[in-house]
């Protein structure tokens, strides 16, 4: 480990001293919240695996190290992936108990999830997802119709706040009258699981999380009672009927609760990040407006450069090493995928945004190995359609100067809370039905 301002009183669990760089790492505020990948540039170069006393986690920053952990489930367990990173207070636990919340395994935190994954994966296949494209396009344009002649908008509030949520509900097979409720409740999962709420805030977040759990149960009851239900939830119930020993009611509720969050919150954030990145790199934006065939490549580079999934977590099952650093059995690891995506051993000039980058798709934003994101195909399609329709109808839009970008403080998920844009509404607005 690099020797930098070591303190003899600050030791990691394996006895190594904690460097000044590691001691100063705070994922809940400061540079990490502004730009997690850039904030760890020094770590990638000098101390790519370090112990954070703030988190009690080993922070892994380089591509090959992150990849090795992902691809070795026999050494590194996923069971802590959904474990609250901040200990839950007794008061918050009591609140959760009032909602009868019972945590359970889900795909992302199951070490042996191959059977569940195989049975649940069919609706996520490329052919199945492709059938949603016309519906996605129609939903996007219905929202653009509301703002295209206004000359200004908040891309998050006026488009990205709801569109991925609607698509998520369509995919899940849920009625779409609960969009606002889904969005407002599911955001609590990010704070509850990956944030650092304390005191009254933790109790407030626990109450919202409990209501989200309760809402998910009601939603499942509604779908289960509908003989004509379609979508992923209906598919889950089919699997439950065929394999009751594999799908308890509690497992299904945890699965759908996490699925709702993943299906729209991460896509909202990823698309918001993509628009900010493209509009700050005007040449790239103008290129995709002139040539929409470049949009799939732009999506991959946006996911690499500023993805919505910043980090994942694992626990060492045995004594092992990562990046030459000894990790004791039981040691917890924060795999900072956003940092790995800026590793110059893999991506030349990694801090340069380049939609023509040949290997952008090697990014780790969707993970790799047995826990690769099941919804990656759907997320890519949504981003492609949203970027394409906005570029077609508002190619002349620009970011409002001087705006401050704010992000929900947590370790693992990132997207702007607001994204203000403006344009000349008389500059040839393009109607939705133009080919």
Structure commentary:
This protein has helices at 20-23, 31-34, 36-39, 41-46, 63-70, 90-98, 114-120, 126-130, 133-147, 155-160, 163-172, 179-194, 200-224, 232-242, 249-280, 282-290, 295-306, 337-340, 376-393; strands at residues 49-52, 57-60, 76-77, 152-154, 312-316, 320-322, 325-327, 332-335, 398-399, 420-422. With 435 residues, it is an alpha+beta fold. It has a domain at 79-313 and 354-422: Cytochrome p450. The chain has a five-stranded mixed β-sheet with strand order 1-2-8-5-3, with helices on one face. A three-stranded antiparallel β-sheet has the order 4-10-9. Strands 6-7 form a two-stranded antiparallel sheet. Helix 9 runs parallel beside helix 19 (376-393), helix 11 (163-172) runs antiparallel to helix 15 and helix 12 (179-194) packs across helix 13 (200-224). It is globular. The N and C termini lie far apart (58 Å).
Topology:
Blueprint: H1 20-23, H2 31-34, H3 36-39, H4 41-46, E1 49-52, E2 57-60, H5 63-70, E3 76-77, H6 90-98, H7 114-120, H8 126-130, H9 133-147, E4 152-154, H10 155-160, H11 163-172, H12 179-194, H13 200-224, H14 232-242, H15 249-280, H16 282-290, H17 295-306, E5 312-316, E6 320-322, E7 325-327, E8 332-335, H18 337-340, H19 376-393, E9 398-399, E10 420-422
Parallel strand pairs: 2-8
Antiparallel strand pairs: 1-2, 3-5, 4-10, 5-8, 6-7, 9-10
Helix pairs in contact: 6-13, 9-19, 11-15, 12-13, 12-15, 13-15, 15-17, 15-19, 17-19
């Amino acid at each position: 480990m690099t020797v930098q301002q070591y303190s003899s009183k600050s030791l990691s669990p394996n006895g190594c001293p904690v460097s000044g760089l590691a001691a100063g790492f705070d994922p809940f505020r400061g540079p990490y919240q502004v730009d997690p990948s850039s904030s760890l540039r020094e770590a990638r170069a000098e101390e790519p695996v370090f112990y954070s006393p703030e988190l009690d986690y080993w922070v892994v920053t380089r591509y090959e190290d992150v990849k090795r952990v992902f691809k070795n489930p026999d050494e590194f367990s996923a069971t802590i992936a959904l474990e609250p990173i901040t200990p839950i207070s007794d008061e918050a636990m009591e609140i959760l108990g009032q909602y009868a919340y019972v945590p359970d395994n889900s795909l992302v935190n199951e070490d042996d999830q191959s059977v569940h994954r195989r049975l649940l994966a069919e609706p996520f296949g490329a052919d199945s997802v492709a059938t949603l494209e016309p519906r996605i396009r129609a939903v996007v344009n219905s929202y653009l119709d509301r703002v295209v002649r206004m000359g200004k908008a908040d891309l998050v509030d006026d488009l990205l706040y709801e569109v991925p949520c609607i698509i998520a509900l369509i995919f899940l097979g849920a009625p779409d009258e609960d969009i606002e409720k889904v969005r407002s409740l599911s955001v609590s999962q990010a704070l509850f699981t990956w944030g650092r709420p304390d005191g009254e805030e933790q109790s407030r977040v626990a109450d919202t999380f409990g209501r989200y759990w309760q809402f998910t149960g009601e939603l499942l009851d509604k779908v289960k009672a509908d003989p004509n239900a379609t979508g992923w939830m209906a598919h889950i119930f089919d699997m439950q009927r065929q394999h009751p020993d594999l799908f308890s009611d509690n497992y299904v509720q945890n699965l759908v609760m996490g699925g709702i969050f993943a299906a729209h919150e991460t896509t909202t954030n990823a698309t918001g990040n993509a628009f900010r990145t493209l509009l700050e790199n005007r040449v790239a934006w103008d290129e995709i407006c002139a040539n929409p065939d470049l949009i799939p490549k732009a999506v991959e580079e946006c996911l690499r450069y500023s993805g919505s999934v910043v980090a994942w977590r694992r626990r060492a099952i045995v004594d092992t090493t990562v990046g030459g650093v000894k990790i004791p059995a039981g040691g917890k690891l924060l795999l900072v995928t956003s940092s790995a995506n800026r590793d110059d051993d893999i991506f030349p000039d990694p801090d340069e945004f380049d939609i023509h980058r040949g290997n952008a798709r090697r990014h780790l934003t969707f993970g790799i190995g047995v826990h690769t994101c099941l919804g990656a195909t759907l997320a890519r399609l949504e981003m492609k359609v949203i970027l394409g329709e906005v570029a077609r109808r508002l190619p002349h839009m620009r970011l409002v100067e001087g705006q401050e970008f704010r992000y929900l403080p947590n370790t693992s998920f990132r997207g702007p809370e607001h994204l203000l844009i403006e344009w000349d509404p008389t500059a040839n607005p393009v109607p939705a039905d133009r080919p």
